[in-house]
Specification:
- By secondary structure, the protein is α/β, with parallel strands linked by helices.
- The chain folds into two domains: 91 residues, Rossmann fold, CATH 3.40.50.720; 187 residues, 2-Layer Sandwich (Dihydrodipicolinate Reductase, domain 2), CATH 3.30.360.
- Helix content is 38%, strand content 26%.
- Helix 1 crosses helix 11, helix 5 runs antiparallel to helix 12 and helix 9 crosses helix 12.
């Protein structure tokens, strides 16, 4: 495989993981890195023997990358991402790929016009536990699925822009639940209806209008016989970070976390249990390999998901936010039908 000239935009914690993972793969060569923190950019550029930028515009103008790895928030780089796409640069963006459905459609149209790949880096997709769950569902070993439950427990201190809905697009539902919602959809289908509640820890009700949510509960109707629910909360005092998905079938039940897989029979007896050492860097590496193969040999390899496929997850999230405002169930398929 020809090595891909690569730039990394945004050197936060996840951006650093992307940089480390890409530098360890033969299919990428790091040409430049960019971050608003000049010292951080200079330090990492010296470490990885590449150019450093603190000006995103010059970062895009002065380089011709094969692909761009993006960890920065779209609120301060969306115009430069679009400029890179027009320069025929392939994009791998940390989830979420867009702040709302409308923005995702605009990016999709731009990438299809310029014939480049735009994919979301979703580490959970490459955890062995979730891949094993997907295989069981594909083989229909769980029987008829009737309930899917998800739980997200975060404990992060977010940057200030995450509290501004105009800049961020959303809170814990969009940023911490995106990966799990994608897994729930892939486990079954896009839900017919979504009903959601969301709030923040702000004591002043008026102030809550200006803060993104850090607590949410989402109910989903997949069909007349299958339902789902997702609860997410960001509270450091409640213990360590946790992401889990449980799928209940008429034959068996599966629970998957980032590092653990448990298969139980109808009586609740554990039939199979496995523990994996899949840290986020490992999963980023698998996502990068998949992305590189799709660029280098598109006839043989196809990316696990494309931005068009990601529209399903974004439609569910947008519908949940609308439901939280209206107090009524909303239908994600309405958004998808409009786009198609």
């Amino acid at each position: 495989m020809e090595r891909l000239k690569t730039g990394v935009l945004g050197l936060n914690e996840n951006g650093l993981l992307l940089l480390q993972a890409a530098s360890e793969l033969d299919c990428f060569v790091i040409e430049a890195v960019a971050d608003k923190d000049t010292r951080r950019a200079d330090t990492l550029a010296a470490q990885y023997n590449c150019a450093a930028y603190d000006d995103y515009r010059q970062f895009i103008i002065q380089n011709q990358f094969d692909c761009l790895l993006i960890a920065a928030g779209l609120h301060n780089c969306d115009e430069y991402v679009r400029a890179a796409i027009r320069k025929k640069t392939h994009i791998l963006k940390l989830a979420p790929p867009a702040r709302n459905f409308e923005e995702a459609v605009e990016l999709l149209n731009l990438t299809e016009t310029n014939r480049v790949n735009f994919a979301a880096a979703v580490p959970l997709r490459f955890c062995e536990s979730f891949q094993k769950l997907a295989k069981l569902l594909e083989q229909n070993r769980l029987g008829e699925v009737f309930l899917i439950t998800g739980w997200v427990k975060g404990h992060q201190q977010f940057p200030a822009w995450r509290n501004d809905r105009r800049l961020a697009g959303g809170g814990i539902l969009l940023y911490e639940c995106y990966e799990l919602i994608e897994q729930m959809i892939s486990s079954y289908a896009v839900p017919e209806k979504v009903y959601a509640l969301a709030t923040s820890e702000a004591a002043d009700r008026q102030k809550r209008c200006y803060l993104t949510e850090d607590v949410t509960a989402v109910s989903m109707k997949f069909s007349e016989t299958c339902f789902g629910n997702l609860v997410a909360i960001n509270r450091k005092e409640l213990g360590p970070e946790r992401v889990s998905l449980t799928v209940y079938g008429t034959k068996k039940t599966v629970e998957a976390t980032r590092k653990r897989f448990v298969l139980k029979n109808r009586s609740g007896r554990t039939e199979q249990e496995a523990v994996y050492e899949n840290d986020r860097k490992y999963c980023f590496g698998r996502a990068l390999e998949n992305f590189a193969l799709a660029i280098s040999n598109p006839d043989k390899y196809k990316h696990t998901n494309s931005l068009r496929k990601e529209l399903e997850s974004i439609a569910v999230i947008d519908s949940a936010y609308l439901s939280a405002r209206t107090g009524f169930p909303e239908e994600p398929l309405n958004l998808l039908q409009i786009e198609s």
